[in-house]
């Protein structure tokens, strides 16, 4: 079958079902009334020099949800990496709650203060990137939020010889609908010269 993106149910269903697995940026911010924590599966690395990560929430100003609004207005946020042991807690933070509700407290997640930015991070996350706002832009019905990584937290148990070991990081990615995937099915393929 060929056709326009909406011929396959909807552009969202087509893209979210075909671009898989997607890393989950579990973004934490500080708001005026509460700390926010929410997962975004439209996310990835944008640059390594400088180190920049990106997440793309659906919505545009002035109707952005708390987390992207805080990230843009305050210019600081943390991207926490979701691992298998945290996936249930991450899912709790996907719930729609009123503005002013601390989503860490709502989901029963322990938080700690970041080192370089004014935002909390997930205490049990094996990897967390403290970010300052690099840029943001509206793209269609979404807003891209780019953050320059200014400090990283990596748990000792996911390091080998001082380097992140992806075999030890049981990261979770988003598929489509209610489906997720872990990174435990691995194989190697040598890139040609």
Automatic annotation (TrEMBL):
SUPFAM superfamilies: FMN-binding split barrel. GO terms for molecular function: FMN binding. Residues 17-166 form the Flavin reductase like domain. Its cofactor is FMN. It comes from the Archaea. Keywords: Flavoprotein, FMN. InterPro entries: Flavin_Rdtase-like_dom, Split_barrel_FMN-bd. Belongs to the flavoredoxin family. This is Flavin reductase family protein.
């Amino acid at each position: 079958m060929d056709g326009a993106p909406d011929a396959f149910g909807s552009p969202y269903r087509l893209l979210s079902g075909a671009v898989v697995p997607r890393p989950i940026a579990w973004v934490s911010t500080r708001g005026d009334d509460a700390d926010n924590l929410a997962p975004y599966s439209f996310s990835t690395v944008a640059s390594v020099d400088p180190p920049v990560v990106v997440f793309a929430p659906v919505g545009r100003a002035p109707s952005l949800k708390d987390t992207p609004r805080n990230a843009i207005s305050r210019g600081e946020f943390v991207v926490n990496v979701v691992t298998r042991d945290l996936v249930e807690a991450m899912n709790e933070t996907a719930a729609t709650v009123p503005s002013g509700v601390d989503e860490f407290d709502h989901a029963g997640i322990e938080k700690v203060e970041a080192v370089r930015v004014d935002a909390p991070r997930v205490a049990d996350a094996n990897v967390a990137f403290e970010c300052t706002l690099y840029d943001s832009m509206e793209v269609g019905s979404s807003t891209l939020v780019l953050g320059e990584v200014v400090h990283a937290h990596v748990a000792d148990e996911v390091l080998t010889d001082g380097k992140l070991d992806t075999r030890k990081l049981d990261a979770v990615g988003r598929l489509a609908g209610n489906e997720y995937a872990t990174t435990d099915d691995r194989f190697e393929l040598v890139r040609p010269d």
